[in-house]
């Protein structure tokens, strides 16, 4: 990872050449964390896209009753009222 010439903290730019060794270490830590956050966001986008695709395939299978669907959806009717007992 390349070290930036400037770093912005709370809207203020600082020259990294003038930072202490501790501050340099923290800049590197932030860069590592930012890279990991970007990687995780990419993984999340991939997972969300896959879930959306799987849901679309499932919905299509349920609507069409395709052979790949183990049980086709059936329309469920309302339960009937019990018949009155004759006395």
Structure write-up:
The model has no long low-confidence stretch (mean pLDDT 85). This protein has one helix at residues 21-64; strands at residues 6-9, 12-15. The chain is elongated and about 100 Å long. It contains one helix and two strands, in the order ββα. A two-stranded antiparallel sheet has the order 1-2. With 87 residues, the chain is mainly alpha-helical.
Topology:
Blueprint: E1 6-9, E2 12-15, H1 21-64
Antiparallel strand pairs: 1-2
Distance between the termini: 89 Å
Shape: elongated
What is the makeup of the main sheet? 2 strands, antiparallel
Strand content: 5-15%
Q: What are the defining features of this structure?
A:
elongated; mainly alpha
In short:
This protein is mainly alpha-helical and 87 residues long.
């Amino acid at each position: 990872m390349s070290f930036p010439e400037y770093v912005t903290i709370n809207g203020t730019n600082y020259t990294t050449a003038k930072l202490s060794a501790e501050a340099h270490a923290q800049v590197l830590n932030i860069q590592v964390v930012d890279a990991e956050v970007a990687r995780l966001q990419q993984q999340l986008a991939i997972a969300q896209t896959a879930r959306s695709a799987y849901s679309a395939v499932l919905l299509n299978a349920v609507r069409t009753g395709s052979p790949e669907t183990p049980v086709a959806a059936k329309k469920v009717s309302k339960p009937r009222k019990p018949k009155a007992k004759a006395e």
